[in-house]
Amino acid sequence: MRLSDPVMVGGEITSGVLLGSGGNRFDIRDGLPNLVFPFELPRADRDALQVYEDRAEVYDRYLPLTFSTYGEDEQAVRNAMIDKLNLRPDSVVLETGAGTGRDSEIIARRLGPDGRLYIQDLSPSFLARNIERMRGVDAKVEPALANGYYLPFADNSFDACYHFGGINAFGDIKRAFAEMARVTKPGGKVVVGDESMPPWLRDTEFGKILMNSNPEFRYPLPLDKLPIEARKTRLEWIIGGVFYVFDFEVGEGEPGADFDFAIPGARGGTHRTRYFGQLEGVTPEAKQLAQQARAKMNKSMHQWLDEVIREAARRDLGD
């Protein structure tokens, strides 16, 4: 992005416009960039935003109940999640859905003067409280209003990415995971969690009581939304066993494997030839004859078929 019409006060940009490569304009007001995209949010995101705006005034007052209900120590739980990020004092970290900063504060205090924490949220009221909480930390903190599944950063920008609470309500959860993987460097960590009643507890009295009181526990586990770049993926159930936490290391593209070694046994072939070398089916009688022939020749089915088909093809082609 390119900065246009900046106004500086005390060395800090207080207002201006960020111009995107596609011609989009993003305002900076009172030092806070508004990077929310798309400009017209889907209905699900507008509804979620309104819920959080309505809760902002009392959120921190009642949030501790989430932990005390299950006899959990909030600081211990949050620190254990943040441990998964493998932070260094100079790490560059992105937190999406950062809320009022209950995790942001812990992350920032693990970073030194060379560290940098980017905090983002869709809710102006939540983010304002987060910014206030960040005053006095050593790390550089960069706040912005932003949509968690349209991240305004280049590929491989961060050492780690964190999100806890809120992703269930995102309009496009799969894209949110893909974006976190995109902006995190290969080898970096992504940690994401939210509430979800696990399948084995949904029909229990315990599960029914909680889902009746808080419908957000009905959200399914978004296991099918994880990105193809996820490596060494772990899933843990925390806070009474009704919140999930994924953590994974970011890889590049699909996983790799050796698909070309000769597989021993009667079938033979390789993983690759078994997948890409399939031909039209034959009658049961032809299949039985082929099995008898390959056994007599002491060859795998792959080797026998490959030789027979090549010989027949060359004959018919006149080669």
Q: Report on the biggest sheet.
A: 7 strands, mixed
Q: What is the CATH architecture assignment of the largest domain?
A: 3-Layer(aba) Sandwich
Beta content comes to 15-25%
Low-confidence runs: none
Report, as a whole number of angstroms, the end-to-end distance.
61 Å
Shape: elongated
Please tell me the overall pLDDT: 94
Series of H and E elements: EEEEHHHHEHEHEEHEHEEHHH
CATH topology name of the largest domain: Rossmann fold
Q: In angstroms, what is the radius of gyration?
A: 27 Å
> What is the helical fraction, as a range of percent?
25-40%
Arrangement of strands in the largest sheet: 7-6-5-8-9-11-10
CATH class of the largest domain: Alpha Beta
Count, helices: 11
Query: Domains counted in the coordinates: how many?
Result: 3
| CATH superfamily membership of the largest domain | Vaccinia Virus protein VP39
Structural class: alpha/beta
| Secondary structure: number of strands | 11
Pfam families: Methyltransf_25
GO molecular function: methyltransferase activity
InterPro entries: Methyltransf_25, Methyltransf_Superfamily, SAM-dependent_MTases_sf
Organism: Paramagnetospirillum marisnigri
Provide structural commentary:
This protein is of the alpha/beta class. The chain has three domains: 1-34, no CATH class; 38-250, Vaccinia Virus protein VP39 (Rossmann fold, 3-Layer(aba) Sandwich); 271-317. Helix content is 33%, strand content 24%. It is built from eleven helices and eleven strands. It has helices at residues 43-55, 59-62, 65-68, 74-83, 104-110, 124-133, 173-183, 205-213, 271-276, 284-296, 301-317, and strands spanning 2-9, 12-19, 25-29, 32-33, 92-95, 116-121, 140-145, 158-164, 184-195, 230-238, 243-250. Strands 7-6-5-8-9-11-10 form a seven-stranded mixed beta sheet. It has a four-stranded antiparallel beta sheet with strand order 1-2-3-4, with no helix packed on it. The longest helix is centred in the C-terminal third of the chain and has 17 residues, at 301-317. 29% of the residues are buried. The mean pLDDT is 94. It holds the Pfam family Methyltransf_25. It comes from Paramagnetospirillum marisnigri. GO terms for molecular function: methyltransferase activity. This is Methyltransferase domain-containing protein. Residues 93-188 form the Methyltransferase domain.
